Automatic annotation (TrEMBL):
GO molecular function: ATP binding; ATP hydrolysis activity; transmembrane transporter activity
Domain of life: Bacteria
Origin organism lineage: Bacteria, Bacillati, Actinomycetota, Actinomycetes, Micromonosporales
InterPro entries linked: AAA+_ATPase (IPR003593), ABC_transporter-like_ATP-bd (IPR003439), ABC_transpr_LolD-like (IPR015854), MacB-like_ATP-bd (IPR017911), P-loop_NTPase (IPR027417)
Keyword tags: ATP-binding, Nucleotide-binding, Transport
The protein's name: Putative ABC transport system ATP-binding protein
Every ABC transporter domain range: 4-231
Entry's Gene Ontology cellular component terms: plasma membrane
Length: 233
């Protein structure tokens, strides 16, 4: 079943086109890698699918809903409840502890403080960083920060997780550990994952790859059959 779809999506920044009539369908529970060189439109497509940006033309549908027509308030609520977003540099709130950062989406959704903290610490534990629950981001390693950011993105148990170069600032060993955890947790929850990356080793964790080039889906982009076998997918 298709959970997310882009139809003839166009997006420009001033006179510069970023996306040109992009069509994409994402199945429920699928881990999809969106790949391509820098500046090809990967992050723009992800941000349109997540409702962060509105396309200039075309449509974005989530289930039966055309979300690009929704107000910013409605799209923000969607990202707090059914969508999770993980950025390259985590973007944790510097003044808050790890547990407070992870609990934030729940608190914004009206969950009680005690319940939100319990859920936050539980997710930190699942991602192997419960020991930094009361530590602020400035006192953590890059890998710890990104695991906390992943916990924050997953704490609401979203139906779709959007990950924009989530390991771009990490070394290869830390990247592999984090991606392994994300894939495992996604399968446990049947979470759909859209993973933007320019790194073939990162893309190898996906079920399927879609390549972009100059704002278009590259018809020569190959699937990941060999990579799937390597990772037991």
């Amino acid at each position: 079943m298709t959970i997310l779809r882009a139809r003839s999506v166009v997006k420009s920044y001033g006179p510069t086109p970023a996306l040109r009539l992009v069509d994409l369908a994402v199945a429920e529970g699928e881990i999809l890698a969106i790949t391509g060189p820098s500046g090809c439109g990967k992050s723009t497509l992800l941000h349109c699918l997540a409702g962060i940006l509105r396309p200039d033309a075309g449509e974005i549908t989530y289930g039966e809903h055309q979300i690009d027509t929704w107000s910013e308030k409605m799209r923000s609520r969607l990202r707090r409840t059914e969508f999770g977003v993980l950025f390259q540099f985590g973007q944790l709130v510097a003044e808050l502890t790890a547990a407070e950062n992870v609990a934030l989406p729940l608190l914004l959704a009206g969950t009680g403080r005690r319940e939100a903290r319990t859920a936050a610490v539980g997710w930190l534990d699942r991602l192997g960083v419960a020991d930094v629950a009361d530590v602020r981001p400035g006192e953590m390693s890059g890998g710890q920060q990104q695991r906390c950011a992943a916990a924050r993105a997953l704490v609401t148990e979203p139906r779709v997780l959007f990950a924009d170069e989530p390991t771009g600032a990490l070394d290869s060993r830390t990247s592999e550990a984090l991606l392994g955890e994300l894939v495992r947790l996604a399968h446990e929850q049947r979470t759909t994952v859209l993973l933007v990356t320019h790194d073939a080793q990162v893309a190898a964790y996906a079920d399927r790859e879609v390549a972009l080039r100059d704002g278009l889906v590259d018809p020569t982009g190959l699937g990941l059959t060999a990579a799937q076998g390597r990772h037991g997918r």
